[in-house]
Write a structure and sequence with these properties.
Length: 347
């Protein structure tokens, strides 16, 4: 009986282990944005898997999607990473609910984590380091294909088709070479090769097939206003469940954790209705990081009275008008500047 060693296909890879139900013991990376409804979404990692979590769930921070970086070198993952310089990502579990824009949040979070590894000391399990992520079409799920196709059409991601790679080997031993095979190489007149001891050669040739490689650069996601703010806050595993964002707020106030970068327009344009109070406190600190102290009161008023420029309630609009607008005009202006309307039809 003989056994053949072969790489696993994507369909044979074991599923990622279940995500723990909260942020304890994980690294909080910031808020990414769902462009469909202006919703901020938490991004976090356990070092291998990156998860996006809803701030609107009850209780908050329920995982709604996750992915991870390739460590198996199966298929054409290595070729994709060499072509782009970015780690190859997998999202076999997809997002829940589907078709609601959270796929964009997940891919943005994966690119964010890769960027933070390169620039801010985040520890990830990746074979390749770079400020972005890549994917290739072999064995990719239909939902992943749909997202990358649309992201490329929108100009958020880019696509290239690689050529077969030239691979060279040195000192390759050739067996079964006969004297007659080499006789025409003899230049000394009257001499004949009678026996071949060993022949070593260098050999080059094309290997592999052309593959389609997609990439999402983190800077493009940030410039598309898909990130509200970045940080690397390592949350202890032994705090009380449900206090993770409060712990982050306290760390920022104590100067133990800081914002790396904050997107001004994305921050102002968020829909803050229904968010947990700790999320509003964290957004307030992001406002203060940008010296937007005058807008913090408006942020809290919008949250307290459930106000948003997209609201159609005359009563809520009346409250806003009575309070000088509650910053709704600034929110509406920011939404006209961000790219969310253009990207909201991403799967």
């Amino acid at each position: 009986m003989t056994f053949e060693l072969r790489p696993r296909s994507a369909h044979e890879l074991p599923p990622a282990p279940p995500e723990l139900p909260d942020l304890r013991g994980k690294t909080f990376l910031g808020f990414v944005v769902n462009p469909r409804d202006q919703e901020p979404v938490s991004a976090s990692t356990d070092g291998r898997h990156v998860a996006v979590r809803s701030l609107l769930s009850d209780p908050p921070l329920a995982a709604i999607g996750r992915g991870y970086y390739d460590m198996t070198s199966y298929g054409e993952s290595d070729a994709a990473e060499r072509a782009t310089g970015y780690p190859r990502v997998h999202t076999p579990d997809g997002v829940t609910p589907r078709g609601a824009g959270y796929g964009t949040c997940l891919y943005t979070a994966l690119a964010l984590a890769a960027y933070l590894q390169e620039n801010h000391g985040l520890r990830l399990q990746t074979k390749t380091r770079g400020e972005g992520i890549c994917s290739e079409s072999e064995n990719r799920s239909p939902s992943a294909d749909a997202w990358w196709d649309r992201a490329v059409d929108k100009g958020l991601a880019s696509r290239t088709e690689t050529e077969p790679e030239e691979v060279c080997e040195e000192y390759v031993r050739l067996d079964n070479v006969s004297p007659g095979d080499l006789q025409n190489l003899v230049t000394d007149e009257g001499k004949t090769i009678t026996y071949v001891n060993e022949v070593n050669v260098d050999m080059c040739g094309l290997e592999g097939d052309a593959i389609v490689v997609d990439q999402l650069e983190y800077n493009d996601a940030f410039q598309a206003d898909l990130v509200a703010f970045e940080m690397t806050a390592e949350i202890p595993p032994n705090i009380r469940p449900g206090t993770e964002l409060r712990w982050v707020v306290e760390q920022v106030l104590a100067g133990e954790t800081e914002f790396h970068d904050v997107n001004h327009d994305a921050l102002l344009a968020l829909d803050v209705r229904g968010l947990p109070e700790d999320a509003i406190k964290l957004l307030s600190l992001a406002y203060a990081h940008l010296d937007l102290e005058d807008d913090i009161d408006d942020l809290w008023y919008r949250w307290q009275y459930d106000l948003d420029p997209g609201s159609t309630s005359p009563q809520l609009q009346l409250i806003a008008n009575q309070t000088g607008g509650a910053g709704l005009a600034a929110v509406a202006q920011a939404r006209r500047r961000v790219a969310w309307d253009y990207l909201k039809d991403l799967p």
